[in-house]
Amino acid sequence: MSKGIREILASHLDELDPPASQLEAVKKRGLALRRRRTGGIVTGSVLAVAVVGLTASQLVSGSGRSGGSGGNDDAARPRHYVTLAAFNVTQGLRAFADPATTGLIHLGDRSYPRKDMDYLDTDASATPYGMVFFDKDQKPRLLGSDGKVVALGEGPSAPVKGFHPSSKMDSQRPLVAWTENHGSLVRVVVYNLSSRTIVSTHDVPCSLKDCTKIKVDGLDGGVAFVRAPEGTFIWTVDGNGWTQLGGPKLRVADVRNGTILWADQAPTMPHGAWRFVEGKIDAQLTFDGKNILYWSNRLAPTTPGGRTIQLSAGAKNSGWYTFDTDGSVLVAVETNEQSQPSSVVKADVFDCEIPSGACTKIGAISTDSGDPEFIGDDM
Question: What is the rounded CA–CA span in Å between residue 119 and residue 359?
Fold first, then answer.
């Protein structure tokens, strides 16, 4: 790594402080949707985010076209989004849902029906400002805490068949990064959700097949981690540096406060200002980078001799887990009784403080359509 890039990275990371357990509301990074349960990653087809609303409709026009880029007739039609009643995010987005199309989705302090909202799926990212998602035109949108859906930038001119946009939220700054397929290149966009402006973009040239493999795997302190066919790269948004972190088998599971949680193949770039920790691909880091959340209510430390965090809800090797937008942990704990049908899943949902581990019940789910879902974090 060149001296210039090393200095840029060091200067960014020197400015970072471990986040407090209670970050300022609407100033914190978001993240929520990874259903965690013993035995592996729980897969799901579609996770809707917004819902049938309570007030007048809001029109957001899509500019997608059908034809050579893989679009369809639906993409050419204007998209109508219903304005929802506003939801409170001061204690985190708290996004969880019944997977059934007739079920409910919970956002902040409210619950909404989720039927007819098939335009939202697991490519969404939960943020302190609401849910960032992609419509059928593969254009980025924000379902804000005011209940309205707004466009974020222009997005691609047309959807590309087989391409799935990716996005990640920064826990240190009010930034979100996403990918856009523009045919012969994938554009990585970093957007400031506070000022509602594009901060920077980086174009990654690619062939049609390779374009589908380019993903944003992390965003930390203004540094994006981008996976491409030839390897994973770090892009310093302010300095516009582009440096290879590792080879094609490297997977960045999570990045928080200068700690990189990696899987499969070790990074080849010198450590420099970063700290490398090996883990599982479906694991996550606390916002201060000191502990790992992995399918358990015990969060192991990332350093020898570090403190293990014990949550008061959940159990080792059972339950569903993810981080909320304020850095707390969301936990769904199954409460089924033997007399209930085996197809029915009942679970209580808790919000657990970090680092104390104290948990508060915030809701419950009863569904016969699969496992409870956390919304906004696609692996």
Answer: 33
Sign of the dihedral defined by the CA atoms of residues 147, 152, 156, 157, in that order: positive
SS3 per-residue string spanning the chain: CCHHHHHHHHHHHHCCCCCCCCCCCCCCCCCCCCCEECCEECCCCCCCCCCCCCCCEEEECCCCCCCCCCCCHHHHCCEEEECCCCCCCECECCCEECCCCCCEEEECCEEEECCCCCCCCCCCEEECCEEEEECCCCCEEEEECCCCEEECCCCCCCCCCCCCCCEEECCCCCEEEEEEECCCEEEEEEEECCCCEEEEEEEEECCHHHHCCCEEEEEECCEEEEEECCEEEEEECCCCEEEEEECCCCEEEEEECCEEEEECCCCCCCCCCCEEEECCCCCEECCCCCEEECCCCEEEECCCCCCCEECCCCECCECEEEECCCCCEEEEEECCCCCCCCCCEEEEEEEECCCCCCEEEEEEEEECCCCCEECCCCC
Rg of the chain in Å (alpha carbons): 20
The pLDDT of 86-96, averaged and rounded, is 94
81 pLDDT band (50/70/90 cuts)? confident
Answer whether 0.90 is exceeded by the pTM.
no
Gap between the Cα atoms of 62 and 154, Å rounded: 10
42: left (phi over 0), alpha (psi -120 to 50) or beta: beta
Residue 244: both structure tokens together: 């290879």
The dihedral of CA 81, 84, 90, 94: what is its sign? negative
Per-residue pLDDT, 91: 95
* CA distances (Å), origin 56, targets 84, 115, 217: 8, 17, 37
Q: What's the rounded Cα separation, in Å, for the pair 221 and 174?
A: 10
The closest alpha carbon to 92, from 348, 366, 333, 360, belongs to: 360
- Per-residue pLDDT tens digits for 210-266: 999 999 999 999 999 999 999 999 999 987 789 999 999 999 999 999 999 999 999
Please choose, from the candidates 268, 274, 294, 291, the residue with its C-alpha nearest in 3D space to the C-alpha of residue 283: 294
Cα separation, 74 vs 305, whole angstroms: 56
